[in-house]
Amino acid sequence: MAADSERSDKSQVVERTCAILREMGRYGQRGARLIDLTERTGLSRPTVHRILTTLGAESFVQRTNDRRYRLSPVMYELGLAAPSPVGDPEKLRPVIQALANQCGDTVYLAMRTGDFAHYLLRCEGAYPIRTHVVAANQTLHLVSGHSGRALLASMPEDEAEDIITRASRDRHLFGEATPDGLREEIEKVRQKGFGWARDVTFVGVAGLTVPVPNPRGAAYLAITISSIPQRLTPDRAQALVKDMRAAAAEVTRIVSASTAS
Amino acid sequence: MAADSERSDKSQVVERTCAILREMGRYGQRGARLIDLTERTGLSRPTVHRILTTLGAESFVQRTNDRRYRLSPVMYELGLAAPSPVGDPEKLRPVIQALANQCGDTVYLAMRTGDFAHYLLRCEGAYPIRTHVVAANQTLHLVSGHSGRALLASMPEDEAEDIITRASRDRHLFGEATPDGLREEIEKVRQKGFGWARDVTFVGVAGLTVPVPNPRGAAYLAITISSIPQRLTPDRAQALVKDMRAAAAEVTRIVSASTAS
DNA sequence: AAATCAAAGTCAATATGTTGGACTTTCGGA
DNA sequence: TCCGAAAGTCCAACATATTGACTTTGATTT
Q1: Does residue A10 lie within 7 Å of nucleic acid chain D, judged by its CB?
Q2: How far apart are the C-alpha atoms of A65 and A49, rounded to whole Å?
């Protein structure tokens, strides 16, 4: 190891363990290969292997049958003992439901987790044609959904690029889109502050998405309206984005309030 | 440290880190004091402190303002990247809803997490007087709810005793009950295989609870029917318990199927 | 079916990071 | 203001982690 300039009463092994766990979190339920983790953490293979073996013995990690490592249900349970970054999502439902009532379409609130967007809430509007492509509590890769586009646009460019690059190996994650197409879309989201796309999650469904501003860094929440493309004309989208941003600000307010304890 | 008889390519620090994290999980969002963790893990204070400091720097752990340590939202997010021990709880809803339809009352499915019961599902029956004391996604201390009684009864006695002892410091967790009263109740649950109690979560509300058998060890799920005491007479309870056990068996079946991948 | 290659897994000599007893500081209660 | 309990710090001793080099596994190709 190179000289560590940082003074510390910190444990090197713990740091490395955290790095590995964090990295595994990115790979979700599919799991990461040993070599993925060594490359991404910069640690030597035996080191990663030993830590993984130990985490496995503690059942924090499981080895899948195709020699991948993923976080185990024990980690899920541990997570439940920790406060959610947004507090109780139900506190946010009124805001999202109000938006759904206003626009008549289906509105989602999604939270970023590693390379994925976890859909916390889905609220229905009154418009009779409903798009139910994603359910509450579902998790979609950031490159696979509308909310993911807003979230990717909000994070540092190299981080987003890293996620897209890595996802490119699994072409099916992109559906009708392509990695390069997505890069362009995200660039547009960065410029305009909202995303509009169709046929992303499902052919014949369009989505409008905005990131929820986060005073402490990159957004980890996004609000998305899902509808049929005919209902999301540029004019209407313009108006909706205004409402969405208002709702987003409200969400920020509520989350900040419940987090400051 | 005593001699470690076990050969290993395991990392001591990782083992210790896991022990600390697991222990912190037990304490939930209130957090644990340094001394709690040193006592319960048997590690020296400087060691625990150093590991906690590192976990804090990695933001896996946060220090509350009253000098307690608790798992951070980062852990919550990590947990979302791991598979839930029960797979998607929505797959279990039909079973619980069917039971609710059958009995007419409110039925819960709860999962154990550390010292707590996390309520996954709440299904409504048709009976007009409804008891809505607990919401879905809420978390209650094991000593504070009906499901917790079933879960405590299912675990090794010393583990249950440890949880009750520790909880005894916070008398308010017990509501109208007392630690000793609870111990008796739980002994009854062990003998009869179900729990009946009133005024636990709320005065004027009664609950009937059974553990969901887990082929791989102690139950971590419980089914609970909540109603007014008049509706849970001994005779009716007897009949309901039969239905609940059938539902529990069905839950076991579904969970086992979705876990075997 | 054999060959090939990439990734996983193992080992052990070395040096590095970890350990915990003893000391100091902080905080909450009286 | 004082007091005790818990938190936090330091450093010499040494147990533990580290990684280069080696072996094994399993998937893919010929």
Answers
A1: no
A2: 16
